[in-house]
């Protein structure tokens, strides 16, 4: 997935992310504001993952959502 795809589709992805990762609040996702790097950082913080784990979990979810 490209960064452009992520940013351009952020409003729809944000709603899907809220359904998949129920621990994320609207405020959490507002801080992400369409930035893939900030989403990885938020996942890392929220779930106490390493950077690599957060990147992988984020990539897995975005891949899943982009094929729906």
Tell me the radius of gyration. 11 Å
- Major sheet size, sense and barrel closure: none
Q: β content, as a range?
A: under 5%
- Uncertain spans, ≥5 residues at pLDDT below 50? none
Helix fraction by DSSP (H/I, runs of at least 4):
over 70%
- Under CATH, the homologous superfamily reads YjbJ
Draw up the topology in text.
Layout: H1 3-8, H2 10-20, H3 26-32, H4 36-47, H5 51-66
Features:
68 residues, Protein Yjbj, Chain: A, 5 helices
Structure characterization notes:
The protein has one domain: YjbJ (Protein Yjbj, Chain: A, Orthogonal Bundle). It has 5 helices and no strands. It has helices spanning 3-8, 10-20, 26-32, 36-47, 51-66. The longest helix is centred in the C-terminal third of the chain and has 16 residues, at 51-66. It is globular, with a radius of gyration of 11 Å. It starts with a helix and ends with a helix.
Nutshell version of this structure?
The chain is an all-alpha fold and 68 residues long.
């Amino acid at each position: 997935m490209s960064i452009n795809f992520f940013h351009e589709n952020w409003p729809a992805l944000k709603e899907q992310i809220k359904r998949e990762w129920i621990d994320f609040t609207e405020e959490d996702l507002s801080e992400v504001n369409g930035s893939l790097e900030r989403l990885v950082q938020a996942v890392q913080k929220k779930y106490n993952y390493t950077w690599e784990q957060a990147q992988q979990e984020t990539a897995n979810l975005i891949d899943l959502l982009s094929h729906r």
